[in-house]
Amino acid sequence: MAKLHGKVALVTGGNSGIGLAIAKRFVEEGAFVYITGRREAELDKAVAMIGGRVAGVQGDVQRLEDLDRLYAQIGAEKGRLDILVANSGVIEPQRIDEITEESFDRVFDINVKGLAFTVKKALPLLKDGGSIVVTSSIANCKGFPAYSAYSATKAAVRSFVRTWTAELKDRRIRVNAVSPGPIDTPILDSQAKTKDQANELRERFAAAIPLNRLGSPGEIASAVLFLSSDESSFVAGVDLPVDGGMSAL
Ligand code: NAP
Predict the structure, then answer these.
(1) For residues 94-116, average pLDDT
(2) Which residues have CB under 8 Å from 159's CB, separation 6+?
(3) How far is the CA of 41 from the centre of ligand 1 (A)?
(4) Ligand 1 site, residue 241, Cβ cutoff 6 A
């Protein structure tokens, strides 16, 4: 039996990388999945790639009216949500001596405030006994140069999981985080100016990972499937690193 048969799920940032792999996996496991992102063309491509039981809803998690429109659509079409994966996020590497207010605000707005309101506004639709998974990062417990704002946003996200687990326990809603290590997605390219620099970054990360390679988006999807499904029915409030051992050794 498929692990998510008949479930309704939302994956924010589902038009690319990790979110796209999660959405694809959820559909393979029997769910109907809504995916979001700001780029309409990428959304259309992702919907076509997944093929069935998927809908794309364009939106920016920084705009609360976009979240209202998203949940109004899910409410009208399905009447409920069983699984929420709050995964949208950006990295803008800047050392503390060069960080700009604009970049600092944007990274916190998307990764922290956008994620918090994605969860808050989902609650009326989310079924009792449902599951929330947020995408943090092993950066939440590491000191990578130029990642101060990003890492702090991911530590905030990890912290949310503890508080929300306590706040939502009477509704039996489980809240957990997945913390990827370096995963081969477009977010790695977004941190480099040229293709060569992006390849260097990939090599540097791979060399720092005990398993000696980058992770794949599908490997994060497997962990998120576990955290979203009844397979993890007694798991709550945790941060699951999926990082080839990078944060453990
Ligand atoms: P990605 O391919 O760049 O995906 C990022 C996703 O977030 C895209 O779908 C993007 O869609 C969406 N997004 C960004 N800003 C948004 C906004 N304001 N509103 C709505 N959606 C927005 O990178 P990824 O690696 O899959 O990243 C997914 C998550 O994993 C992020 O939270 C990231 O921090 C986390 N993570 C990644 C790694 C890694 O090594 N890849 C490691 C640890 C954690 P649009 O651009 O169309 O809006």
Answers:
(1) 98
(2) none
(3) 16
(4) no
pLDDT per residue as tens digits for the range 125-179: 999 999 999 999 999 999 999 999 999 999 999 999 999 999 999 999 999 999 9
Q: From ligand 1's centre to the CA of 115, what distance in Å? A: 12
What pTM, to 2 d.p., does this model score? Answer: 0.98
Residue nearest to atom 31 of ligand 1 (CA): 89
Q: Within a 10 A sphere around the Cβ of 2, how many other Cβ atoms?
A: 13
User: Cα(233)–Cα(244) distance, rounded to whole angstroms?
Assistant: 24
| Architecture of the domain spanning 8-180+217-242 | 3-Layer(aba) Sandwich (3.40)
Spatial distance between the Cα atoms of 237 and 176, rounded to a whole number of angstroms: 5
Q: What residues does CATH 3.40.50.720 cover in the chain?
A: 8-180+217-242
Q: How far does residue 186's CA lie from ligand 1's centre (Å)?
A: 8
Ligand 1 closest atom vs CA 135: 32
**Which backbone phi and psi does 207 adopt, to 5 degrees?**
-70, -25
Per-residue pLDDT of 172-191, as tens digits, reads 999 999 999 999 999 999 99
